[in-house]
Design a protein that fits this description.
five-stranded antiparallel beta sheet, 34% strand
Amino acid sequence: MPFPESFATRRLTAERLRPEHYADLLRMHADPVQMAMLGGVRDAAQTTEYLEKNLAHWDRYGFGSWILRDERAQVVGRAILRHLELDGVDDVEVGYSLDPPVWGRGLATEIAAACLEHARADLELTTVVALTLPANARSRRVIEKVGLTYERDVMHAGFPSVLYRVRFT
């Protein structure tokens, strides 16, 4: 069964990342609050690189990043299931980033849980990881709520990070 290019949760619609989402990514990457725990604000060149990398991931693996829309069809964030090499090991990472005005509504938990279900059911993965900065208490709560457990501290993309993992049985 091919992986879904779009899917819906109770309050969000996820659509496959496409080149026409560049302006949405640029807006999200320019928000210092949204990007504070994601390595900081990204400029146009970094956003182009991010877009190209994630489009190539879809082409290579058949899954990747989605743009998230709310009930009003407004773009409110993004989510990922993508390959991540860490310490020479290839894993698949779940991740999300939402616009600050929608924080605190449970949307991160909702989309992370949906991504994990797709990883388990559609990709038939046995494990998925998540990374965040140690100080990102909000994200750590979401990661733990959806069933991942702390595994270890790591360095990722030049930042000290915490690695979480879920094993599907």
